[in-house]
Amino acid sequence: MPKKKPISLRCPICRTLVLRTSEDFPFCSDRCRTIDLGKWASGGYVISSKINDPEELESIAEAQSRKQFDPDDDDISSRER
Ligand SMILES: [Zn+2]
Question: Alpha-carbon distance 44 to 47, whole Å?
Fold first, then answer.
């Protein structure tokens, strides 16, 4: 059974207590909602933690360079089958 959700949360912008029934939940006001949107737009939030992992970035770059340097790789493997 899922746990009961809290009736209120703190506004992520100004830490004011906001009721779940509030029109602007989880923000205390339209102003804080706008500030939050602005943060997203300016890259203030990290959208994906994975992409910021250096190892993950390396493996992605590796996979991409492999595709570029071995364009016939798929043909070879299908021929072997
Ligand atoms: Zn607020």
Answer: 9
Q: Is 17 helix (H, G, I), strand (E, B) or coil?
A: strand
The domain ranges of the chain are 1-71
Going from the Cα of 31 to the center of ligand 1, the distance in angstroms, rounded, reads 7
Residue 26 Cα to ligand 1 middle (Å): 9
The CATH number of domain 1-71 is 3.30.50.10:
yes
Q: How far is the CA of 13 from the centre of ligand 1 (A)?
A: 5
Q: Indicate whether this model's pTM tops 0.70.
A: no
pLDDT, tens digit (0-9, with 9 covering 90-100), for 8-57: 999 999 999 999 999 999 999 999 999 998 887 777 555 555 556 667 67
25 Cα to the center of ligand 1, angstroms? 10
- Per the CB < 8 A criterion, the answer to whether 13 and 35 are in contact is yes
Stronger pLDDT, 2 or 51, i.e. the higher one: 2
